[in-house]
Amino acid sequence: MREKVEKALESIRLALQADGGDIQLVSIEDDIVKVRLTGACCGCPMSQMTLSMGVEKAIKSAVPEVKKVIAI
């Protein structure tokens, strides 16, 4: 599962980096993916939308068994 999640993150990483941000996979526990937004994404007022509409959508599309994606 970790490899699939990493691959999904790679698919959106360039878009995040284009805006000065990035994302790191922290852990996967009980089908919940924990990520850390870094760079310009950290503290950005749009980061919650990016997380739910971009990151979570990409991960759930690639790995349907994932229940939730949260930022820590």
How is the topology of this model organized?
Elements: H1 2-18, E1 21-29, E2 32-39, H2 47-62, E3 68-71
Parallel strand pairs: 2-3
Antiparallel strand pairs: 1-2
In short:
It contains 2 helices and 3 strands; from the N terminus they run αββαβ.
Characterization of the model:
The protein is of the alpha+beta class and about 70 residues long. The protein has a single domain (about 1-70), classed as GMP Synthetase, Chain A, domain 3, CATH 3.30.300. The chain has helices spanning about 1-20, 45-60, and strands at about 20-30, 30-40, 70. A 3-stranded mixed sheet has the order 1-2-3. Helix 1 (about 1-20) packs antiparallel against helix 2. About 20% of the residues are buried.
Descriptors:
72 residues; alpha+beta; GMP Synthetase, Chain A, domain 3; three-stranded mixed sheet; 2 helices; 46% helix
- Total number of strands: 3
Please mark out the parts with pLDDT under 50 across 5 or more consecutive residues, or reply none: none
Q: What is the number of helical segments per DSSP (H or I, 4+ residues)?
A: 2
What is the name of the CATH topology?
GMP Synthetase, Chain A, domain 3
Profile the largest sheet. Answer: 3 strands, mixed
Beta-strand percent range: 25-35%
Query: Whole-number average pLDDT?
Result: 93
Shape: globular
| Percent in helix | 40-55%
The CATH class is identified as Alpha Beta
